[in-house]
Amino acid sequence: MRTAYQYKLRPTKIQALEIDRWLSMLCAQYNYFLADRFDWYERNRSPINACPIVCHIPELRDNPDYYSQKKTLPQLKKTHPWYGEIYSQVLQDIVKRVKVTFDRFLKGDSNGKRSGRPRFKSRVTYRTFTYPQIKDGCLQGSLITLPMFGMVKVVLHRPMPDGFKIKTASVTKKADGYYLTLSLEDTTVPTIKPDFNPDSITGIDLGLKEFLTTAEGDVVPIPQHYRKSQKRLRVIQKRISRRKKGSNRRKKTIKQVAKQHKKVADKRAYFHFKTANNLLKKYDVVVHEDLNRQRSFPFHVGKICT
């Protein structure tokens, strides 16, 4: 079984500046690798319905795949020595991100669904870097040791389950601070409860007027968190329109809007977890309709917990 736990980070002012510096450098490198892929794509493609009879054939180049782009990282550290301060696997994760997003654009995901054209990241939208591998024992008490970064204070609001090992660690910058996401794995724990009660099964129907309705007729209303916060958002957004573009007061007000939207997102997430927990306390199996896939059997079993 694999799960993820998220904790709030309490970095010092120097550490917060260092996280922002890492994100800025990684964002620039992400855009560089993505531009390299687009350069190859534009030079090597030829639309049949718009190709002229006589045209110049450019010099073809090899496809910049995952391995060829990863081989450029040692040279990057020589030409730009400040990239040597970033952990090597964090830089390699950038190459993997570019590969995944570009493959979904050209080939599609496992279901064959293609994504839109990848976008270049701005400094504001690039907010996460990941350690693909991290040593056991990196978390000691309320401190976590991140390679080539140092020890950072973590708010452990809940303990990690016994037997689970930390596989990856991600640092994310949000509107109200920095967060640490730990991916945990324990192969001995089954993902599906093996001894569930066949009589403790229910189905749910997701609707527009009500959030969901169970097979027994129990109704869960929609909490309308966003509509309740619209009045507060309207006030803050009016303040933004009165601020001068590029001023510090405008930037501070924009942060207030981001924090307000995060409050709405947190309320929604809490409502979803609370609703799912109440259902799984009462039933062993919860079945819901899958509207995104066309099947002869349009229902599948949801998560089963002990």
Question: Which features would summarize this protein structure in a list?
Answer:
12 strands; 21% strand; alpha+beta; five-stranded mixed beta sheet; seven-stranded antiparallel beta sheet; 306 residues; globular
What would you say this structure looks like, in words?
The model is unreliable at 294-306 (pLDDT under 50). This protein folds into two domains: 1-188, no CATH class; 201-301. Helices cover 38% and strands 21% of the residues. The protein has six helices and twelve strands. It is α+β, with helices and mostly antiparallel strands and 306 residues long.
Order of helices and strands: EHHHHEEEEEEEEEHHEE
* Number of E strands: 12
Count the DSSP helices. Answer: 6
Work out the count of structural domains.
2
The largest sheet has its strands arranged as: 2-6-7-1-5-4-3
